[in-house]
Amino acid sequence: MTNPDLLLLSGGRGTRIRAMHPDVPKPMIPVLGRPFLYWVTAFFAGQGLRNVVYSTGHMGDQVAAWCQSDPMPGLTQTCCHEREPLGTGGGVLNARGLLGNWILVSNGDSLCLGGVKNLIALVGREELSGGLIGLYCSDTSRFGSLSVDEAGRLVAFREKVPGAGLINGGTYLFRKTVLDRFPTGTPLSIEQDVIPRLAADGHMLQVVEARDAPFLDIGTPETVVKAEQFICSNQAFFNYE
């Protein structure tokens, strides 16, 4: 099995936390003396991924400068800049030419420390067009949930309703050829445009459960403050060399 290439979506503006770090893009917020993006990259490197592309937007020059000034040993790190905001799906399409036959996509401002090896294990499965990580949640009303069939295949994203279930963990695997149906240079959302279109066209996406996996999204002031403790408490996940 060949490992997929990694695309980290790193173009977020971080409007809710702008007052805390007005001069850096959200993935570059410092945590324990390094950009948060370093810890995200180190985690995936620990899962065996070595070719990393960063989809950049807002203040993307800072991500490019970091890659050049402080490269991570053993990794190939490349930036692909969006001239205009393209959304999560548009970012994938924009960087597609730099990526191989299978693409693992995740956010540069969040970490889900589980399920990745099982997601990577789907590479090469002829019946699948990809997959995604599902996190168990006791109340999905804040997030919406994943509708999954008996074989663990994604049926649809459900609206926000009370009750326990799986929520989207924000990490995806795509066979590159299934993305050919989407236009480049057009704003697209993975959740609202790409995956619903694939599901409607009969493409099978496997949901990999990651129960009780540590998770952090630095999208609010409260979670930014928690980032250092999160990294320290899960240090073993970031030792990739």
TrEMBL record:
It comes from the Bacteria. Residues 7-232 form the Nucleotidyl transferase domain. It holds the Pfam family NTP_transferase. It comes from Roseibium aquae. This is Nucleotidyl transferase domain-containing protein. InterPro entries: Mannose-1P_guanyltransferase, NTP_transferase_dom, Nucleotide-diphossugar_trans. Transmembrane segments: none annotated.
